[in-house]
Amino acid sequence: MRLLAMGVAAATAMGIVAGGVGPVTATTVPAATGEPIATLEAAGGVLGKVVAERPVAWTPHIRDGAVWAITQTGDTMVVGGNFTRVAVSKDSPDISRTNLMSFDAVTGRINDFSPSTDGRVAAVTPGNVPGTVYVAGSFKSLNGRTGRVFLLDAKTGKVLDSFSPATIDGPVVDLALVGNRLYIGGTFTYVGGAPHAGIASLYADTGQVDPHMNIQMQGNHNWTPGSSGGRGFTGPMAFDISPDGSTMAVVGNFKTVDGLDLDQAFLADLSGETATIADWHTDRYDDPCKTSYDSYVRDVKWSPDGRSFTIAATGAPHPGTLCDTIATWLGAERGRNLEPIAIDESGGDSLYSVAHTDAVVYAGGHIRWANNPNGEDSAKP
Q: Which of 100, 146, 208, 269 is paired with 19 by a 20 to 30 Å CA distance?
């Protein structure tokens, strides 16, 4: 995976920098001076400069598998994915960790944090109590306890018994905490025995179902009965909530939301007693891009000031579409057939993750080029 950064001060003149980065969700890295910098999520996305190209030398190693999620709570970094072996450094002995690990954000020391899951950890986010973290994924149990979402002590890995998650019948791919409400998204259809197709909310302290979120996703972006293309599960790939907690941006594999034509992307208004679908629509993600992919949107993040959000997409080289692009949208704009305010096209390579600071937008993927609107698996003017 590679990382690029787009300047967002002037949406029409985006500056690009690129460099190598490991297979992780887009996040900040420590400065070359060795001074720790919090992850974008933990810092609320506020970082007034482009991060240094060289990370500190003490970042722990993942020996196998892949990393799918990183977050910071206090002075602790928590990492989730599908892996079994980690190490303090390149030449140090292996330490056994099953899909979860944590380390000190200042020294890189690996903590005595060794919860074990029977499947991939896809999402981690700071808990409702300082020093804790929510973890979720495609696993069905953690330390032998049945569940898809757990609240853990971020340093020891101890499960907090006060959080007893509702039954969820499918994988969870994303999490977000707002007050005492924990939003979950994934390829599930029932939560706590009630229909919740793709997204739901839990009480953050108990883990039981909160009735606030009852929006349902339907259909597949590309696949139709009888088609030869790839078929994926219906549900979000990612979602993010505006800094003021009022609006959720969702991207994923769906054709309609509560029966409305909202192909692959929609906004939800969270300000009322129950969540409702916002009057926001674009047809720019209607293109098929590549029929072997059922859906091609991959990530979405809000800017720290809440004025805009950015969507990362894969697909295939199709100039003039939003396949293989990063696209930024005005958060307050409403109506139909809306257009992004800024687009960066890779010219044929996938973009998988995105993160905002007050200075730049960071995006990760297997990109070879940026600012390449005419490229079709090649560099063009």
A: 100
Give the model's pLDDT for residue 176: 97
pLDDT value for 134: 98
State the pTM of this model. Answer: 0.87
DSSP 172: E
Q: Specify the 3-state DSSP secondary structure of 316.
A: coil
Q: Which of 33, 42, 45, 48 is nearest to 75 (CA)?
A: 42
Strand pairing partners for 250? 239, 266
| pLDDT value, residue 89 | 87
What Cα–Cα distance (Å) separates residue 96 from each residue in 60, 84, 111, 116?
Answer: 13, 6, 12, 10
Question: Residues 6 or more apart from 329 whose CB is under 8 A from it?
Answer: 282, 308, 309, 310, 311, 338, 340, 341
Alpha carbon separation from 367 to 10, 141, 244 (Å, rounded): 23, 35, 32
Q: What is the pLDDT of residue 41?
A: 38
Which residues of the chain are modeled with pLDDT < 50? 1, 8-46
Residues 23 and 67 sit within 8 Å (Cβ to Cβ): yes
Q: Is the separation of the CB atoms in 70 and 48 below 8 Å? A: no
Judge contact between 124 and 134, C-beta under 8 A: yes
